[in-house]
Structure prediction request, 334 residues.
Amino acid sequence: MKNIVQGSLITTFRCNAKCNMCNIWQHQTGAEEEIEYACYEKLPDGLRINITGGEATIRKDIDDIFRVLHPKASLLELSTNGYHTEKIVALANRYPDILIRVSLEGLPALNDSKRGIKNGFDHALRTMLELKKTKCKNIGFSVVISPDNYKDLLYLYDLCVALDVELGNSVVHNSWYFHKSDNEIVSRDALEQHEKFVKALLTSKRRGLKNKLKDYGRAYFNKSIHRRLRGDGQGYRPPCGALKDFFFIDPRGNVSPCNGSEEEWIIGNIRDDSFENIMHSDRAKEMAGRVERCDRNCAFVVTERHDMLRRPWIPVLWVVRNKIRIARGKAICW
Prediction:
């Protein structure tokens, strides 16, 4: 409990997209199954909280969820596909200090094909342009790297640089959360394009030192993604921080260590018990043991972020070393 700093709240499994790397849309919750927004009042103060789904803005009580969580969170995040522009912009106007990431998987044709949502790119871009008119400044797109969208990575990055917004990224995984077991994670072509993307981050053309430093940090995080894409075995990422640094709560109120396991490792339910009791229970100790024995080699940003904060000299040295290598015309040292 002393170490936990982040909670990811999967507020719904309902989704208006049909992504080919995620089958949540085939396993949607009914609104009546989802926990009431008041249950989130049980969470401790000071957490970094990510509100996600499915598509979180489908919930009719999304305003109430933000009203409850905003005063409790050290940073409140919204992950969205950007389809419900008016709802998202209203939240940004009401809570300008939140973080918003709008999902894109490529340029228009590829994005709409991968996400299975008509005019999805248009909605996402429209939302971002409207967000830029608000006082909410921590805004940007996010992309899930997979073997069929890597060719658009640099274009998405260039778009974000031109718009002066962030670009977060992750990589495809297989787990209970995604209802997938066939996401391909190894690709030679993806490796080549991904290295070009990381080089662009390490030679950031963004304005301002702070924005450049963010790109350098993202380049380091992508080290684990690169090694995952090339099929490396154990040892390429920091020890998993599930249940030590972060936790998940699903739409039904089930608390679990992470969203990367093959099946959901449920510790308890926030509807039925206090958060403190759940996290100090014998079941939590059992799940912590499973986390320590887990060999799935996930490459999630949440694990990397906490390790980078804990041991900042490691990413700093990696960034400096590789900026020198790039300046000398050498390949990145992973």
